Amino acid sequence: MSIRDIDASGKRVFVRCDFNVPQDESGAITDDSRIVAALPTIQALLDVDASVILASHLGRPEGHDEKWTLKPVAQRLSELLGQEVQLAPDCVGAEVEEMATALTQRGILLLENVRFHEEETTNDPGFAQQLASLAEIYVNDAFGSAHRAHASTEGIAHHLPAVAGLLMLKEIEFLGKALENPKSPFVAILGGAKVKDKIRVIENLLPKVDALLIGGGMMFTFLKAQGLEIGKSLLDAENVAFAKKVLDAHLDKIVLPPDVVVTPVLAEDAHAKVVRLDQIPEDYIGADIGPEAQLQFGERIRAASTVVWNGPMGVFELKPFSGGTRAVAAAMAECDGLTVVGGGDTAAAVEHFGLTDRMNHVSTGGGASLEFMEGKVLPGIAALETK
Ligand code: ADP
Ligand code: MG
Fold first, then answer.
1. Model confidence over 198-253: pLDDT tens digits?
2. Rg (Cα) of the chain, in Å, rounded?
3. Does any domain span residue 174?
4. What residues make up the domain containing 79?
5. Ligand 1 site: residues with CB under 6 angstroms?
6. Which ligand is nearest to the CA of 214?
7. Structural domain count, the chain
8. How far apart are the CA of 313 and the centre of ligand 1, in A?
């Protein structure tokens, strides 16, 4: 259930957000998109005259540490909403309880970093109860933290009516539609650095997809499994056997790029060249999928009804090796089917190419979206009411 299914009018509502924003050395927020993403839920609650109590973690503080205060978040939120956002000195305790009780309708109180208490990450029941005592309804809008069973993401949900916020709802709807009920042809694209990080994603997706396109650093472990020379490319030696097993069982579904961009060094001014898959020179690094692979992958993606993508096709942070990742993003932008992107670096790449708005959904949760793709039940989602 989500905030659309409940009546929050005039109620005190505890909203767990993901305000874990990047900051520079002075503490200034360098990218406020996570704060912006939380606005629709906050606004929807204000519109029904609720009192809004916001909570989040920031960084990984050990105990109360002013370096990780949510003060900059309170300030930015207040600017974006055009109204005062009070910052509580803590997230639990008598003073905070008083502030929560004194909160007027349409008032907003931001609790201080929940990770100032180790009880947050240990999901301490007493601490969760204290958080819950501040409000009458719990809303979880922090998809990026839904894979963690912490007090403010899971424990608290056992004490209050618990529903999803609008951001969380969008994540569940799109990832769910794409992965649980995909319209065929269903094409998945996997890349990124290591096979190890993606084993469970591969295992979960293979039975569902019509085609699995493999690029990125992980492709070389699959090439190695086929007995090909991969030069100095990234190798996940421990998972060659896994790659071989997967190739043997699903040869009909797995698509490897026909050509590769190789380079003596990973640098902006590198003398890169394109070679066939079976022609990687001994002293070269495979750093991107080649132009023919871009065309092949692009064709399959454009013709798909459902596309799920995780993992860049190459070292996209460097211009000479960004072509494959850009081509996949562009093909998805042109695809008429449902297009979903997951993974922190992949989302950053799509954003970098200016194509975020052209996708049906770009997940805001790096680790959480990966676990969703693994087919895992996320504790922060499981704790919410179902219809
Ligand atoms: P995500 O965060 O989207 O799940 P990953 O963290 O798995 O993605 O992978 C992203 C990283 O993979 C990027 O930093 C990129 O440079 C790297 N990568 C992609 N292709 C290669 C390659 N051929 N060799 C080495 N690293 C690669
Ligand atoms: Mg990553």
1. 999 999 999 999 999 999 999 999 999 999 999 999 999 999 999 999 999 999 99
2. 23
3. no
4. 3-168
5. 191-193, 197, 216-217, 234, 286-287, 310-312, 314-315, 317, 343-346, 366, 370
6. 1
7. 2
8. 7
